[in-house]
Amino acid sequence: MLSIIAFVAAAIAILFIPILFGLAGIALGTVGHFRGETLGKWAALTSGVTMILGVFLGILIGSMSI
């Protein structure tokens, strides 16, 4: 269950507050992995990647508006 919430946080992290939702997804995925969920590590990895993509997307959009 935590892994599913982590994937949702990863999807949100691309567009809205990537640092917050990305870190939340990493934390939830890691906890899910340690609780025995098979998708936990993938959810944490996906959250990290989408967090980085969200930050770069925000920088790109921010630099275009100037």
Structure description:
The chain is mainly α and 66 residues long. It has one domain. It has helices at residues 2-13, 18-34, 40-64. The termini are far apart. The model has no long low-confidence stretch (mean pLDDT 94).
Brief sketch in words of this structure:
With 66 residues, this protein is mainly α.
Q: Give me the strand/helix succession.
A: HHH
Domain module count: 1
Structural shape = elongated
Most strands sheet: none
Number of helices: 3
Mean pLDDT: 94
Poorly predicted regions: none
β-sheet strand percentage: under 5%
- Please estimate the helix content: over 70%
- Number of β-strand runs: 0
- Span from first to last CA? 42 Å
Give me the Rg, rounded. Answer: 12 Å
> Structural class, please?
mainly alpha
Q: Which features characterize this protein?
A:
3 helices; elongated; 66 residues; mainly alpha
Q: What's the SSE blueprint?
A:
Blueprint: H1 2-13, H2 18-34, H3 40-64
